[in-house]
UniProtKB/TrEMBL annotation:
<dbReference type="InterPro" id="IPR001845">
    <property type="entry name" value="HTH_ArsR_DNA-bd_dom"/>
</dbReference>
<dbReference type="InterPro" id="IPR011991">
    <property type="entry name" value="ArsR-like_HTH"/>
</dbReference>
<dbReference type="InterPro" id="IPR051011">
    <property type="entry name" value="Metal_resp_trans_reg"/>
</dbReference>
<dbReference type="GO" id="GO:0003677">
    <property type="term" value="F:DNA binding"/>
</dbReference>
<keyword id="KW-0805">Transcription regulation</keyword>
<keyword id="KW-0238">DNA-binding</keyword>
<dbReference type="InterPro" id="IPR036388">
    <property type="entry name" value="WH-like_DNA-bd_sf"/>
</dbReference>
<protein>
    <recommendedName>
        <fullName>HTH arsR-type domain-containing protein</fullName>
    </recommendedName>
</protein>
<dbReference type="InterPro" id="IPR036390">
    <property type="entry name" value="WH_DNA-bd_sf"/>
</dbReference>
<feature type="domain" description="HTH arsR-type">
    <location>
        <begin position="28"/>
        <end position="122"/>
    </location>
</feature>
<dbReference type="Pfam" id="PF01022">
    <property type="entry name" value="HTH_5"/>
</dbReference>
<keyword id="KW-0804">Transcription</keyword>
<dbReference type="GO" id="GO:0003700">
    <property type="term" value="F:DNA-binding transcription factor activity"/>
</dbReference>
Amino acid sequence: MAQHSNRNFVTPAEESESTASAELQKLATAKNIKAISLLIRALDSPLRIEIILALNERPHYVHELVKLVKSSQPLVSQHLKVLKTAGIVDAERQGRQMTYSLAEPLVLDILLLALNAGVDTSG
């Protein structure tokens, strides 16, 4: 049985891993790392995730979100500010009220990846 100590081919899995590694190296700038950290911190709240899921359905006024997530208006507004700073939601003034919408739908993919990565959903 011959052993191949020096192989001259790359498997598809190795090529994919190499491509992913190259993409990650592009991300490794201080600015990008800070932006990624901000995004991840913004997702580190069950209430903010509830807000994101509500906004995935359609844009909402703050008072609607307060009812949907069953929290106080000041608390919901505080969480919306965090999501807006992270670029996850947009805000638009309509008269005396603010309407919030999902600015970055790809955040839903991040939530699904987290769920599929083994997040314990049992309790």
